[in-house]
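User: I'm new to structure prediction. If I give you an amino acid sequence, what do you actually give back? Let's try with this one:
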Amino acid sequence: VRSREAAKRFPELKELCRKFIASYEKRTEAPDTKYGAKKYKALLQRAANQRLETIFVDLNDLEEFCKQEITEPDDRIADAKGIPKIRLQESIEQWIGDLEANAMRFMRYFYEACDEELPERDAGFDAETSMAKDVIMKWRQGMVQRQREAGGA
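Assistant: Good question. You get back a string of structure tokens that encode the predicted 3D arrangement of the chain. For your 153 residues, that looks like this:
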């Protein structure tokens, strides 16, 4: 029964994963010159520039984001998913528990969110290490595209 209830929350939680990656702000850190306090956008820029290989989602950040979203749920997500705001709030309240119970699903959601939010390379791009990483990036993009075409997304 718990899994069935959790599965009903997945569509809105997937959207919230993307919103988290795109908009979460960490005010205690020195602001990024391009993205300000947007922690994960700054990390994605470093990844795009091949200065960082892995982006780790801090569960403390996610918990802080949840507290904020519970008090001010995103009308756009509720409207897009055709659910009342109260249901979105309930989904957010249970997000951490759902994540702990189904880590692989949420790892994929965050991976997809990072992929969708990945910015273009900028002046900080590391050209020296780019050739091998470009081959890997093209292979990865091809795999993602094939999965989407096969209906795996």
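You can read the tokens as a compact description of the fold. Here is one thing that stands out. Residues 2-23 form the longest helix (22 residues).
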